[in-house]
Input
Amino acid sequence: MKKKFQQFICKYGVQLCAVAMALSPLISRGCRGKYYQPKEPDGFAEFALNHTKNSK
Output
């Protein structure tokens, strides 16, 4: 089994690497959009409003 795997990698390694490089940005963007939904802290809208008023 190990010999067949080595032959497969030697024969198609460049193509596998190219596919991985092409798909990696798409996959990471998709996962972040689905699972990373940060919660807004309580009172954040008021803080942001006061911060912009005081910074001018």
Remarks:
- DSSP finds two helices and no strands in the chain.
- The chain has a mean pLDDT of 82.
- The helical segments are 2-35, 44-54.
